[in-house]
Amino acid sequence: ADEGEIFGLIGPDGAGKTSIFRILVTVLLADKGNAYVMNYDVAKDFKLIRNIVGYMPGRFSLYQDLSVEENLNFFATIFNTTIQENYETVKDIYQQIEPFKNRRAGKLSGGMKQKLALSCALIHKPKVLFLDEPTTGVDPVSRKEFWEILQKLKSQGITIVVSTPYMDEAKLCDRIALIQNGKILDIETPTNIVKKFDKTIFSVKSEKMFKLLNDLRQFEKTISCFAFGDSHHLVVEHQINLEELQNYLGHHKNLSIKKIEPEIEDCFMQLIQNEKLNES
After folding, report:
1. In this structure, are 182 and 238 located in the same domain?
2. What dihedral angle (degrees, nearest 10) is formed by the CA atoms of 160, 164, 166, 170?
């Protein structure tokens, strides 16, 4: 990740995102290989790294029986600082939860817990902030607010490394790494990831979606087909004859076929499929 950017680690559950984060913040020792944060070795310089990184785990890990203010003071004390000393760093976030400063952390809503956890991760003014799936289980409004906060932190010069299983959040990062089974499949800007998609893609719907999915996967010119929201995304070679596809699916009622632009999730699925083909 470059200094001062929002770098996204994108992948499904079990892809290895949390393990990478735990290695980089020096709470997990890697079996092999090397990893560096701000040119510091995670194995040799772990004490230095812990002073310059902030870490927000995927699970809420603050003290549930302590109040909002007590949690923040506790983490400030660990890093030999105070809320007042670094207040400007957490001001925009803390002001939103300050009315609840005497409420126990365990009694906060999901969105408020995330803001408290972020405040605690920032209280020592880190140079790099690691956020492990920070918006998982949070309502859409809180998700939007959280990403607005990240953009403000970026403007302060803080490098942000964030993991998420949500492909729509990938678009909000400066660059992303797509990861599956512990392997990085590609690293690029979201725009360039999409530009690399070199196939034709259709959105297909009908009354019987399960049967449609099976039929599409049996079509001789199908490269891949996956359920995607209320439709199926069908990936084919460029030279497909649309009329041929319509004739093949003619027995489906209320059939709808639209050519669409690929999304990051389509690119990710294609990379996974290419990886499987290479392995075989």
Report:
1. no
2. 30
* Measured CA angle at 59 (ends 150, 159), to 5 deg: 25
We report the CATH number of the domain holding residue 256 as: 3.30.70.260
* pLDDT per position as a tens digit, 188-203: 999 999 998 888 899 9
Q: Is 80 left (phi over 0), alpha (psi -120 to 50) or beta?
A: left
Q: Are residues 178 and 101 in the same domain?
A: yes
Residue 211 has pLDDT above 90, yes or no: yes
* pTM score of the predicted model: 0.84
Q: What share of the chain is helix, strand, coil (3-state, %, to 5)?
A: 40, 20, 35
Asked whether residue 189 falls in the same domain as residue 50, the answer is yes
CA dihedral of residues 214, 220, 221, 224 (deg, nearest 10): 40
Helix (H) or strand (E) run with residue 169 in it: helix 167-170
Query: pLDDT tens for residues 111-152?
Result: 888 888 888 888 888 899 999 988 877 778 888 888 888 888
Phi/psi class of residue 187: alpha, beta or left (left: φ > 0; alpha: ψ in -120 to 50)? beta
Domain containing 54 — which CATH number?
A: 3.40.50.300
CA atoms of 74 and 55, how far apart (whole Å): 15
Q: How far apart are CA 92 and CA 153, in angstroms?
A: 10
**In terms of domains, do 15 and 118 share one?**
yes
Domain span holding position 165: 6-193
- Answer whether residue 117 is part of any domain: yes
